Amino acid sequence: MNTVVMGLQWGDEGKGKAIDYLANDYDVVVRYQGGHNAGHTIYFQDKKVVLHLLPSGILSPHTISVIANGVVVNPVQLVEEIEQIRNQGFQPDNLQLSSFCPVILPVHQELDIVFEDSRYVKIGTTRRGIGPAYEDLTGRRAIFVKDLLDRDIFYKKAKPLNDYYNQKIVSRGGKEVSIDSYIDTYIEMGKKLKPFVCNTLYSLNSYLKAKKRILLEGAQGVLLDINFGTYPFVTSSNPTVGGVCTGTGLSHKAIENVIGISKAYTTRVGGGPFPSELLDDEANFLREKGNEYGATTGRPRRVGWLDLVALKYAIMINGVDSIFLTKLDVLDEFDQIKVVTAYEDTKTGEQGIIFDPSFEYLENVKPVIKTFKGWKSNIGDIKQFQSLPLEARQYIAYIEESVEVPVNYISVGTGRHQTIQK
Ligand code: IMP
User: Is 12 a known active-site residue?
Assistant: First the structure.
């Protein structure tokens, strides 16, 4: 079944591990949005591999890995990543890169930094130029991967863009970026990437016709979606299911199954509302135990309890069929485990289960909490669902009942084998 795997929270749900676990059952793994703001960590044969742009199927030699048109590509980063995994003993020969991926230029990155620094309320972007590159796409002036393959075309398109952005950068106190400082490198990267460049829209549809099994790998998470996330504290793409169609050229009919990834608690990096956030010793404990530091930027992640109001919202707008629950083992030592079941509006005192993603609303709600007894034992080596402690099974059953979707996979550690399939 062609499957979308997407994060149901604010990113960092453990998608890399989930996709690596599932990838064996698929012939093709596709990234459809985002860029190197993502950081998908995979532990494979004792090797830790962090992928930012390459699809998580790249470690399986028989899988075709596709970076489709919805992904914004920094060519220097992509070439580096290809070389990195080669050095780690993997072969990226089955990689395909869409000729229509928008390219991130050094001016985009500089713009991202000066805009972020001059913003009154900071989004906390990854400062990698993701937003400005997507703005160029909707502004109908994007430079695509195909343009890297011809120096004259690249220069003709990039020069005016570069000049235009330099004015904005300098007016905000940033440093001008000369096109001469990167054009040679970008053209060189274009040469290195050329063997992978193709029309992925046609290759993907041919795989569909040939009944190959396709796995669509979301980056970030539903609550960071440009349309449905906690705007403006969002990324600039659609991790949600609609992003699959616009980001690949596969029709909605191609999507047969949606697996949503959720941590057994919640984290967030960057600014923005977070109703279930913890700010005390419990937060520090959870952060350390879960190693909650960004895979891309190293920033400490904000942490909190599982928020069922937000989870239901994410499930509703994506037609999620099942949940892959990650990092359940991180809760092993807690006496009590809490979940948010509703929000109380602090202005009116009313309780509700509507997730209104607006900042003004979420900043003024108080979480309504249900407390569970912790299982207080190490679950990292458990292989069967029935062998999980009763308290852990009760916690999972409560999640399933609340969100009306089954939890079919449970991750109890970083290793590929530490996954329980129900
Ligand atoms: P941008 O995607 O770099 O523009 O950042 C926008 C927001 O999305 C910031 O709050 C980032 O921290 C967040 N973000 C972007 N990518 C990821 C990710 O892969 N995991 C978690 N948060 C992310």
Answer: yes
Q: Which of 36, 40, 52, 108 is catalytic?
A: 40
Answer yes or no: do 183 and 41 share one domain.
no
Indicate the length of the chain as a whole number. Answer: 422
In order, the DSSP letters of 244-263 are: HHHHH---GGG--EEEEEEE
Task: Give the pLDDT of residue 43.
Answer: 79
Measuring from atom 16 of ligand 1, which residue has the nearest CA? 37
Q: Which residue minimizes the CA distance to atom 20 of ligand 1?
A: 11
* Closest ligand 1 atom to 297 CA: 12
Q: Is the CB of 190 under 6 A from ligand 1?
A: no
Considering the domain architecture, whether residues 219 and 282 belong to the same structural domain is answered as no
Cα–Cα distances in angstroms (integers) from residue 238 to residues 4, 134, 207, 369, in the given order = 13, 11, 23, 30
359-409 pLDDT tens trace: 999 999 999 999 999 999 999 999 999 999 999 999 999 999 999 999 999
Residue 125 CA to ligand 1 center (angstroms) comes to: 6
What pLDDT digit, counting tens, does each position of 142-154 carry? 999 999 999 999 9
Residues 189 and 213 in one domain: no
Helix or strand holding residue 93 (H, E)? none
Q: Is the CB of 220 under 6 A from ligand 1?
A: yes
Tell whether 243 and 320 lie within a shared domain: no
- Average of per-residue pLDDT across 344-354: 95
205 and 56 both lie in a single domain? yes
CB-ligand 1 contact for 38 (6 Å cutoff): yes
Distance from residue 128's CA to the centre of ligand 1 (Å): 10
317 CA distance to ligand 1 middle (Å): 20
Domain with 163, as residue range(s), is 106-193
When divided into structural domains, the chain yields a total of 3
Contact present, 371 and 336 (Cβ < 8 Å): yes
Q: Is 40 a catalytic residue?
A: yes
